[in-house]
Write a structure and sequence with these properties.
Nucleotidyltransferase, domain 5, six-stranded mixed β-sheet, four-stranded mixed β-sheet, about 20% strand, 2 domains, 13 helices
Length: about 300
């Protein structure tokens, strides 16, 4: 049976937003192969919190292959092997949700969570996060790089094999109170749906709207020639308006600087207010029905 570790990084809070994957194969008690790929997510919306974790920007994946292409060579091993992941429900959720989002069949997968393994074999009051366990075991790696994280995950499993005397990684389930989890075919999660306007969600949206006047949102953007432009969010009777100081913006035409902020592309953001990028997305999503975001071609962000 093929045994390999996997790690995904995501662009935002959605499980089908994978932007990088790393893998590490185990044979004969050691890591024999490593691979990593950048992935272009279906929606080029990167949450600032995710960027702070993995450092991947929209510009890094703009020319990367989509999920089906990036994962094609690895899927046979994943489908027929034992998958290792640290906090495996997250990574398995990304794998299954991404397949389903691209209309691909979701096969059965078998996995073992090395977070659970570490809690049994390497318990510590400080916790058993990937970085903490790797540090205690002397595993050197660059945390939150998908390929490096997959390698560390594999090494933690191998260390557990040595400590417990198990005959293999799969054999850990025979010496520890753990089991291999097998997920049945089919999507793991229901299709993402936009939040409704009724009840608590509706009142929250109206509250966000009332507080808009106190929520100044401005960005300083580097232009293609090095010039600096300001993109500012304004509220007008007809709806939200993103105003840019570039020539196109002054002539009320759509510009790439406005596009970048709506898409969450912070590649050329020099004001470093990443939290406001996420705030902008939420303000646009919470704009009450009947309001639009101008310029006219700048439509409200809709959930897939």
């Amino acid at each position: 049976m093929t045994c390999l570790a996997i790690d995904f990084e995501t662009a935002n809070e959605r499980r089908d937003s994978a932007c990088a994957v790393g893998l590490a194969w185990i044979e004969d008690g050691r890591v024999v192969r490593r691979a990593s790929r950048l992935i272009r997510p279906p929606e080029m919306r990167f949450s600032p919190g995710n960027i702070r974790v993995h450092g991947i920007l929209p510009a890094d994946v703009r020319d990367a292959p989509p999920f089906p292409v990036a994962m094609a060579e690895f899927l046979p091993d994943l489908e027929h092997g034992l998958i290792l992941a640290h906090n495996a429900p997250f990574d398995m959720g990304v794998l299954r949700a991404s397949l389903a989002a691209h209309g691909l069949p979701v096969p059965s997968f078998s996995y073992l969570c090395t977070l659970q393994v570490a809690r049994q074999v390497f318990p510590d009051p400080a916790g058993c996060g990937l970085g903490k366990v790797a540090s205690r075991l002397g595993i050197r790696f660059e945390h939150h790089d998908a390929g490096e994280d997959a390698f560390a995950c594999a090494e933690i499993a191998l260390a557990a094999v040595r400590v417990t005397g198990a005959e293999s990684v799969a054999g850990l389930t025979r010496v520890l109170p753990l089991r291999v989890t097998t997920l049945p075919p089919g999507p793991e999660m229901p299709r993402y749906r936009a939040p409704g306007r009724e009840g608590i969600a509706g009142r929250a949206a109206l509250s966000a709207r009332r507080q808009f006047a106190d929520a100044e949102v401005r960005f300083m953007i580097r232009g293609s020639t090095g010039n600096r432009y300001e993109v500012a969010l304004e509220e007008r009777p007809s709806g939200l308006y993103l105003r840019c100081t570039c020539m196109a913006g002054r002539n009320r035409r759509r510009c790439r600087h406005v596009d970048a902020m709506v898409d969450g592309d912070v590649t050329d953001l020099i004001s470093e207010n990443l939290a406001d990028v996420e705030r902008l997305r939420r303000l646009i999503e919470d704009a009450p029905a009947g309001h639009r975001v101008e310029p006219e071609r700048l439509r409200r962000v809709q959930a897939a």
